[in-house]
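Morning!

This is the sequence you dropped in the shared folder:
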Amino acid sequence: MRCSVKNVAAVVATAVMGAPPVACGAHARGDGTVTAAACMRTRYLLTVNPGTTTSNEQRTLQFQATASACGHRAPVRGAQVRLDSDRVTTDAHGRASVTVRLQTGRYLIRLLVRGRVVARAHVWAIPIVSS
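The structure's back. Tokens below.
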């Protein structure tokens, strides 16, 4: 089976939307096609910026959710990002943000696609140390 680069991008988009991806090649060739190999696994990545914030201060955290399959990366739209009781949904570019005031500690952030946790990230809230 040979898939064009366009079809590989469709595999990523299909995987992001939650449908099972079709088998497609993972190795690019010089003529713009890829050879037959199963690339059924979609990997999700959730990043948070900033990764460390000052505790007890109101701060906006920005999230980016992406999925990769067959060597291509695409934003994850419509996924839910959870930080404690705060829940936000990613936009068409895979971005979301939430304004929070965190106590000192490490916080787990989860990315959910169709109700299933597919990626995790952490943010640290540290106290201000004055001299």
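Headline: The domain at 3-126 is CATH 2.60.40.1930 (Immunoglobulin-like).

More detail when I'm at my desk.
O.
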